[in-house]
Specification:
Layout: E1 6-9, H1 13-24, E2 29-32, H2 39-43, E3 59-60, E4 63-64, H3 76-89, E5 94-95, E6 100-106, E7 109-114, E8 117-121, E9 123-126, E10 133-134, E11 149-150, E12 165-169, H4 173-184, E13 189-192, E14 202-203, E15 206-207, H5 208-214, H6 228-231, H7 249-255, E16 258-260, E17 263-267, E18 270-273, H8 277-299, E19 317-319, E20 325-330, E21 334-335, E22 341-342, E23 364-366, H9 383-409
Parallel strand pairs: 1-2, 1-9, 2-5, 6-22, 9-23, 11-20, 12-13, 12-20, 13-16
Antiparallel strand pairs: 3-4, 6-7, 7-8, 10-21, 14-15, 17-18, 18-19
Length: about 400
């Protein structure tokens, strides 16, 4: 069985950032990837998708965007090509086409089993991300037969859907973008909106992410927030990768998308929506106002404010058997898939328990989870500092192991 010092699982931006940092400390390692480098960007993205972050924020250890369009937004194939180039330039030791089947604790570390063989290592980094499997609610099984359902991971373009109306469930970044694209294709669209994070694309003449970056909002650390559990479960921002274009519920409603509350149930073929949409929107407006207040306090002057979300009388029910809806898109988020992790670091819901990326099992680390160490941890731009700090911890752990071996041998 081959051995190495560190096994990194996943060759997305987080895994490659860890690889670059480990190389900088001369720590030998291998990166295991079930598909190709940047596999999810190649296989689970719709055709028109762009990054929500402007190109100048595409920064990784030893890499920064140097193209001609710093204020633009990369398309998914461009992200994949960038990461493949980054892996090559970094000489990352990636083994593609290698699916991990189990990780287990063993004497002196861990054994990582794959469909291509096994590895032994004192340290393992889980860089497989928080968005491995679409999180479709259990009530999806109640959808009447004959109405196809899909998730953003399986959606490519409106042309791939049957004719007719679409119910999009979920109003975070993916949900609002798909509702907008499907409506623009000429389809009637109903958007079921629960809790969401309203966000303008630009504020005071600059991209909102410029302000969040400059004011230090994205650098807020996990040990500086009052309710970390809540912070790690905040929905993604309602943004679209298009310069100057705000895509919130006001924009969608004005364009003709029908808004409904959170999908609460399906009974006898009838979709039932929560009546709390006005309250949900009022809360999103309030949080947006607080964020803009934070930016203004940093800037030293007051800026613009946006009109409250206008909530027309939303429907409380929609008969899915009437023929009005021909497709349902479940834009209800993702969850990690750690079914192969056989180390006691998971909670009862199968979520990994960690403290800024370190787990209760010495030598086992995770990167790429929401608010792992900073508010921007899931962004490409957040991987560099998280990876550097976890690498420092990992190196300290290795030094401690070496010290114990020396003492036991003397």
């Amino acid at each position: 069985m081959p051995s190495t010092t560190t096994v990194i699982i996943g060759a997305g931006h987080c895994g490659l950032a860890m690889s670059r940092c480990l190389t900088g400390r001369s720590i030998d390692h291998v990166v295991l990837e079930r598909g190709q480098v940047a596999n999810s960007w190649r296989t689970q993205r719709w055709d028109s998708l762009r990054l929500l972050t402007p190109n100048w924020m595409t920064r990784l250890p030893g890499y920064a965007y140097r193209g001609a369009d710093p204020d633009g937004y990369l398309r998914a194939p461009q992200v994949a090509a960038m990461l493949e180039g980054y892996a090559g330039a970094s000489a990352a030791p990636v083994l593609t086409g290698t699916t991990v089947t189990s990780v287990r604790a063993a004497a002196g570390g861990f054994v990582v089993h794959t469909d291509q063989g096994s590895w032994r290592a004192p340290t393992v980094v889980l860089a497989c991300g928080a968005a491995a499997v679409p999180a479709v609610p259990a009530l999806a099984r109640l959808v009447p037969a004959g109405i196809p359902s899909l998730t953003p991971a399986g959606y490519r373009s409106p042309a791939g859907l049957p004719p007719g109306g679409v119910l999009v469930v979920g109003a975070s970044a993916s949900g609002v973008q798909l509702a907008d694209e499907l409506h623009r294709s000429g389809r009637p669209v109903t958007l079921a909106a629960g809790e969401h994070v309203r966000m303008p694309r630009t504020y005071r003449g600059r991209d909102i992410l410029w302000w969040l970056d400059a004011a230090g909002v994205l650098d807020q650390r996990y040990d500086q927030v009052d309710d970390l559990v809540r912070a790690r479960n905040v929905p993604s921002m309602q943004l679209v990768g298009s310069p100057g274009r705000t895509l919130d519920l006001n924009a969608l409603s004005s364009a003709g998308v029908r808004l409904a509350g959170r999908l609460a149930g399906i009974q006898d073929g009838v979709a039932q929506f929560s009546g709390s949409l006005p309250n949900v929107c009022a809360l999103a407006d309030l949080k947006l106002g607080r964020l803009l207040d934070t930016i203004d306090a940093w800037a030293g002057t007051a800026g613009e404010r946006f009109a409250p979300t206008a909530v027309p009388r939303p429907p409380l029910g929609l008969d899915l058997r009437s023929g009005e809806i021909s497709t349902i898109v479940w834009a209800t988020g993702y969850r990690p898939d750690l079914s192969w992790l056989h180390v006691p670091v998971l909670d009862r819901k199968g979520r990994i328990v960690h403290d800024g990326g370190t787990t209760a099992s010495p030598g086992l680390y995770v990167i790429g989870m929401p608010f792992l160490r900073r508010r921007k941890s899931t962004l490409i731009d957040g991987a560099a500092r998280d990876a550097a700090e976890l690498t420092a911890h990992l190196a300290g752990h290795l030094d401690a192991l070496a010290g114990r071996r020396e003492r036991s041998a003397s």
